[in-house]
Design brief:
Elements (H helix, E strand, L loop, with lengths): L4 E6 L1 H5 L3 H10 L3 E8 L3 H7 L9 H8 L4 E7 L3 H9 L12 H5 L8 E3 L3 H11 L7
Antiparallel strand pairs: 1-3, 1-4, 2-3
Bound molecules: adenosine-3',5'-cyclic-monophosphate.
Length: 139
């Protein structure tokens, strides 16, 4: 059954480009409420663990290096059908393929510097939320 929660990170390019406010605005205007949020920077060990599923991919090293290059905003979001609706809101991984009106169409630069992360399943939303937040940080 859908849990109605998803996990997101605003990636270092979003912070560098001054897009935190605009992206959070798009997320809340789309009907998501914020259950947890933190401004932080991933360590090398944290990024390697978070993206362990991609360890065999040619872009893994680049991905870890990029995701540790500056601060991120991590958040847990709630809405009916959260995982699927958030994936629709953020758009395709490659911004050149992202639909009009999506966050990546508006703010992503490339497949790597693609503005936001969104969990791809309810199970991963739970795992990723637990990775970043303890129960007392969730409201
Ligand atoms: P995300 O879906 O958040 O998590 C996996 C990330 O890997 C993905 O976003 C992209 O940022 C990154 N990624 C996927 N494909 C490539 C690629 N070809 N080159 C660089 N990064 C990639």
């Amino acid at each position: 059954m859908a849990t109605n929660r998803t996990f997101t990170m605003l990636k270092p390019d979003s912070i560098e480009n001054g897009n935190i406010g605009n992206i959070i605005g798009m997320i809340t205007e789309a009907g998501f409420s914020i259950k947890a949020m933190k401004y932080t920077q991933l360590s090398d060990a944290q990024a390697k663990e978070f993206y362990a599923v991609h360890v065999e991919r040619p872009f893994y090293g680049e991905l870890v290096e990029y995701m540790t290059s500056g601060p991120i905003v991590a958040a847990i979001l709630e809405k009916e059908n959260a995982v699927e609706d958030f994936r629709a809101l953020i758009g395709a991984t490659d911004p050149s393929e992202a639909a009009d009106g999506t966050i990546r169409k508006a703010y992503a630069e490339s497949k790597g510097r693609n503005a936001v992360h969104g969990s791809d399943s309810d199970d991963n939303a739970q795992i990723e939320s637990d990775f970043h937040f303890s129960p007392v940080e969730i409201f």
